[in-house]
Amino acid sequence: MTLPRAALLAFSIAFVLVHGAFVWLSPVQGAPLEHVTFSQLVGCSLARWPIVHVIATPLIGLALVFGLFTIAARRLPNVDAWPDTIAIIFLAACAWLATPDAELVWWHRENAAVWIYGAAAALWFAAPYRCNWQPRAIHAPLLFLVGLCAGSSTRQIAVPLLALVAYAIHHMERPRPRWAWIGLAGLVLGTTASFIAVPLLDVAAFVAGSGKLIV
Hints:
Helix content is 69%, strand content 0%. By secondary structure, the protein is mainly α. The chain has one domain. The chain is globular and about 50 Å long.
């Protein structure tokens, strides 16, 4: 194992452990589950099953950091190169420092569901468009699903992402690949859901035993 790879692995483990410890200590609080959207469903799941929050949220946060690098560099990081390792660590620090009330955004269940999960989904959804990748046809349904999740996370993420993806498709060579349209369809559907969210009529069964509706 090369030194850059070992350093990146050590950073990733430390990132997951530190964030996992703090999300475990964060209080369970939030608002009722009101709409069938990605962020609402994730938030309710994180509150209903704390172990999911402890395991998944740090990993999603790490995916967000790697996604930032991928979008900025227009390629996946080279784990054996010091510049990429240092850049990822630097981006993780910048993401923390640039976030107002970072502990509330990264660790609070409702906020993490909206901003951390939503931003990670948006970054990796945009990666094929930004990096000029050519996903296989078998990956198109996954791209549709990620677009649906990113679009229904929050309007503040969905609308700029929709504009950027539309711009990227406009500048693709013709004929434009089918996967690009499939991904866009998922994003449009998710964005529509974020604006026209259908209120849930019965969430008691989902949080049965919790004693209250929480996310």
